[in-house]
Amino acid sequence: MPLTTIESFSVSYLQVLDENGVLDRALEPELSDADLLRLHRFMEMARDSDQRMLKLQRQGRIGTFPLCTGQEAPSCGAALAMRESDWLVASYRERGARLMRGEPPTQDYLYYNGFEEGAAMAEPLSMRRTTPTQVILAAQTLHAVGIAYAMRLQGEKDTAVVTFLGDGATSQGDFHEALNFAAVWQVPVVFICQNNQWAISHPREKQTRSETIAQKAIAYGMPGLQLDGNDVLACYRATREALDRARSGGGPTLLEAVTYRLLMHTTADDPRKYRSEADEQAWWRKDPLVRFRKYLKEVKGLLTDADIERIQHEISEENKQHVQAFEARKDFKPDASFDFVFGTRHAVIEEQRALFLQDLARRAGAGEDGARTAAREEAAHG
Amino acid sequence: MPLTTIESFSVSYLQVLDENGVLDRALEPELSDADLLRLHRFMEMARDSDQRMLKLQRQGRIGTFPLCTGQEAPSCGAALAMRESDWLVASYRERGARLMRGEPPTQDYLYYNGFEEGAAMAEPLSMRRTTPTQVILAAQTLHAVGIAYAMRLQGEKDTAVVTFLGDGATSQGDFHEALNFAAVWQVPVVFICQNNQWAISHPREKQTRSETIAQKAIAYGMPGLQLDGNDVLACYRATREALDRARSGGGPTLLEAVTYRLLMHTTADDPRKYRSEADEQAWWRKDPLVRFRKYLKEVKGLLTDADIERIQHEISEENKQHVQAFEARKDFKPDASFDFVFGTRHAVIEEQRALFLQDLARRAGAGEDGARTAAREEAAHG
Amino acid sequence: MAKLNMVQAINLALMQEMERDPAVVVLGEDVGVNEGVFRVTAGLHRKYGAERVIDTPLAESAILGTSIGMALGGLRPVAEMQFSGFSYLAIGQLEGNASRMRARTRGLFSCPLVMRMPYGGGVRALEHHSESREATYAHFPGVKVVIPSTPRKARALLVAAIRDPDPVVFMEPKRVYRAFREEVPDEEEVMEIGRADVVREGTALTVVAWGAMLHPTLAAVDRVQAERGVRLEVIDLLTIAPMDVNAVAASVQKTGRCVVVQEAPRSFSVSAEVIAVINDKALMQLEAPVRRVTHYDVPTPYFGREMLYIPDEDRIGRAIEETLDFA
Amino acid sequence: MAKLNMVQAINLALMQEMERDPAVVVLGEDVGVNEGVFRVTAGLHRKYGAERVIDTPLAESAILGTSIGMALGGLRPVAEMQFSGFSYLAIGQLEGNASRMRARTRGLFSCPLVMRMPYGGGVRALEHHSESREATYAHFPGVKVVIPSTPRKARALLVAAIRDPDPVVFMEPKRVYRAFREEVPDEEEVMEIGRADVVREGTALTVVAWGAMLHPTLAAVDRVQAERGVRLEVIDLLTIAPMDVNAVAASVQKTGRCVVVQEAPRSFSVSAEVIAVINDKALMQLEAPVRRVTHYDVPTPYFGREMLYIPDEDRIGRAIEETLDFA
Ligand SMILES: Cc1ncc(C[n+]2csc(CCOP(=O)(O)OP(=O)(O)O)c2C)c(N)n1
Ligand SMILES: Cc1ncc(C[n+]2csc(CCOP(=O)(O)OP(=O)(O)O)c2C)c(N)n1
Ligand SMILES: [Mg+2]
Ligand SMILES: [Mg+2]
Questions:
Q1: N- to C-terminal Cα distance for chain A?
Q2: Could you confirm whether A265 is annotated as catalytic?
Q3: A357, B162, C143, D176 — which has fewest CB within 10 A?
Q4: Rounded to 5°, angle at Cα B76 from B73 and B77
Q5: pLDDT tens digit string along A102-111?
Q6: In the predicted model, what is the mean pLDDT of chain B?
Q7: Domain range enclosing D295
Q8: Closest CA to C7 of C114, C118, C113
Q9: Is B1 part of a structural domain of the chain?
Q10: Distance from CA of D61 to the nearest CA of C (A)
Q11: How high is the pLDDT of residue B27?
């Protein structure tokens, strides 16, 4: 056997609703009106939260946070495709999905104001199965694989895991190891790469030389698909199909959702250093929300412009109340960090806690109770 | 644009001399008789060293070591394709390549008897450009990328780097990161994966779900090729072509040399725990040395059976002398470990050295000179 | 009750915990069919199958990272790093996630997992197969580090580690693996994590040691006691972090003298923390500087020289004598 | 001579070293076009181009691993970890290769490289962006760890680190980055690695500090001096490993009292090693237990609480006073 071709592969691209809102009816997913409206509501909600947080941050009322404007479709589409009992193992740009799974916006406000209290919720089940924001790029993809393994071993045959990462994170070793383990174990995981073209200032073309992220699936003997990440119907459809395959024992899938980070990386970032306004403008014209609103209005006849404005207004009012609730919260136990080092008690930790409290007490120039109150306030105002 | 195929890829396989020694003349590389004989000599030498070390190890005269029997072709073929000024950044199964680049077998005897003195040589240039055995799987592939970058930046446009790793090592994050960086940087590196079917007890099929290792190149937008790793002509030819491409600015290549580890992983391993003798026997029938000898005898008419026996005898005698030279060596400075912590002197280290020497001296119940001698002997006999 | 070496004792712990709790899974390189490169996992794969005794692809970060996921998903993973020298590839997952999950989520999620690994020198091994780097792990808040010294303790502590609600780095002194046997009860035995063990009671001096170093320490102590007619106290630390600071302090308050023995390099090590604890809690009773008997601050020499660098009975004995003699 | 903040001072060192030696290259995430997330590499990319100021793909192990290769190939790489919290992904390469290359090859190959990284808290950052884990790196033999405290020292030490023949972990206190300016000479200035700096001379007590902690330390020292009319000695450690043990010892031999201030968690930390050094070399002169003012052994709290946990002037001052008062 001389120089012979032994294998062939191809990569496909999915788009249901194009940039102008033109629909491919053959690919349109079957979604109830209620689901479509839910999708719309949460995409608007994610967008509104982002804008609100940006203002709060600029006013010094919360800390640095990563923005999700423009990237509402992949995570909302995926969340709609998921069951309550499925696990969401996200990174930090999936506000939409977390909101859809039941997380109130206050959680993020707390979290990005420096309180772990914003990081996890025991209820509903969908939140108990939503891991908190994970900052070490790609690390969470391995957790997803382990969780999927655990679900299968414990007989939850119908439970699947959706995990998210960015285009930059695909360069990390953990991404490679996660896809490889997932494929070897054939666990029910859907990997969704939000290819938003940038890793802070590093453009996608210099992140990897492969033409697509989707083709990386070939390295693992896994199905891979590229899709329009600003088309929420494509996002829903692709996730749904990958989840169906995963549940029926077909193993993991890699989805590349091609999208764009319309604003800064985090509030500490200045995109003018590395990309042009023209580039951004071109992508604003592909805004996933504009396109989906158009679909709901023109194709589905579900909403009018007035409806949409009303919904936006409702969300905005709702969010204002969330901000108030967040800012009213003051019950931050100063020594809480000592409570969650270990699940068991140890002398070293308790000794240090005592020192810590003593110190607070001295500082407050009062008894320990006074100190606790003082500290709580200091903590609350960061 | 609906569900559309956007990319296609294929993977090829190269074999020049098949398992029965049948040659594909169209693919036969042009090699001088001298080169062919050199190739043969070093493959025999690698094999003989392996066997000799196995005996030494069983007699307790050296420590644990990894065997290379059956895997002589990828490394010897590559070494022949390389220039003196190219870098070899190998792992631990490339004895053949290192011998061809000028490393005497004594180095390995020393190294595997626990002396760093066996790990690096300043001459000839090819050895100055051969990094020592590297045990952390896949870590060396990143070094290779950095070296290639350094060569290019410093204007050595014609210098390339060949790096080796095993099939198991392809699961490591470092492998992924190395291929990605190499492709993005388009540096002159040839990655050769010796797919010997096993990672200790873990079979290739459970290491990754991809049908080939070669197809992993697709994930990086890099050329990949699978080849018969027991066919030294294919190994030479593929490396040579990849090196030519690398030198002419064509960037990195991934080669998968399909071979087999005919003996144990290291002398501490027992393959009977995890694979069958029948499996091994099947691969003995593909022995790269047998095949290449046949080619030299029957196709090239360069050697007779008697010639081969003579060469083997010569090598064996030569190797015996290397063992004697190795065992005669006693100049091991006991405190040498303090000499190579830093390239600068520091009080902490020198204080500790003084304590160390004091201790040796006390132990020897004699002055420091006596202690040094005593320690040297203890060290020499391990 | 059977006489077991440390490999067998650890194996017993794994066997019984897998039997007791179906959530316990074992994963790592070559831990299944091959039963571990040291045969620590012998029989597990045959008994509990490939789904619970998992031969993983070759990637340490993935072994720990998926273990974290398994723990989040309700399992009790016991992950093996084939040698501690490869565990650095998993530190990102340990420091960045396992150690913080409880704090990050205010206790809602936690990572009950064990990262087992053989460590230490003296077995004529290749590079990266002989280090003692417990200090690296001990400094990470949220991580427990346990090092048993004998078969019986290894078994009882591993059981505790598996049942522990937090990530435990369990470092096994491979030099002790087959060095001797000890009676190990068949029935369940659990030792509490966080407690040191006073293995010899004495009044003249305290020796603190752990892991493989306990044995040359005991030999040195026996010799000095016999020669000098003094009683020495020996503390087997067992849990490195969180350290049993009160046990160390109480002993040194009593004896006034202390020697710390460790296989690890000297600086920024566990011995420094032991000294710091003594400084905090027993300085006023201290009659002599604490002596450290340690490896040196050098990259671990290959085995041709290594025994010159690892503390032995001789060096330990001398340090004890000099500390006793200090006036 | 210009008044520079630490970001500008580090930038000056990089600029001048790149100018002086064409083998110097800078690599990392966002260090080129974006000029670093803290603008530490401002102007480098424009001046020296993308081949020498390399925007890498996003992978820390690769950044360090390719730096090792570059060093082997004759370059002088200055690798940036965007935040020290991500450096754990590169520890495998650091411990397994960079730190050992010289020992492994008996000096034939070495790894002259700098791993720069911002570390430490106090800047209201996200998780993983606030740790101080110098102890983790200091314990690895073959690795030098340097932490500057002021702009001028940062510049002079970074120059030394770049010219150093060994791997240097260069940790930059990000809280100091823009906190104040200091005169920094235009012409070359190099400080020797391995030397501590006595920044205040005194007789009553020694305070050992480094990095961001130097500044609340000095404030506390000034207050106590003023209030009590005593002279306190302050040692800025600068090189964590290999530590300038003689400087610490000489000072404590003189003063008999010592406080160590660190931002890192308490146990198994650099402060423990300082105490161990005092135990080795100055115990007999010690008149009070060494006090440590540290973070606690807890996963770093998010910024809502962090300032309660990081040592400040108040805590440091109190520890100094209590140590002075100890009788
Ligand atoms: C391991 C690691 N390295 C570096 C960082 C710093 N960092 C945070 S986000 C980011 C860019 C990530 O890009 P990408 O994966 O494309 O995700 P995106 O932010 O675009 O959603 C970097 C470098 C990090 N969080 N983790
Ligand atoms: C990072 C790391 N993990 C584990 C090991 C232990 N180990 C040494 S060789 C080996 C198997 C390697 O398999 P492969 O890459 O296929 O190379 P081969 O030995 O077959 O040549 C293992 C697990 C190691 N050396 N490095
Ligand atoms: Mg991105
Ligand atoms: Mg192999």
A1: 70
A2: yes
A3: A357
A4: 75
A5: 999 999 999 9
A6: 95
A7: 197-325
A8: C118
A9: no
A10: 9
A11: 96
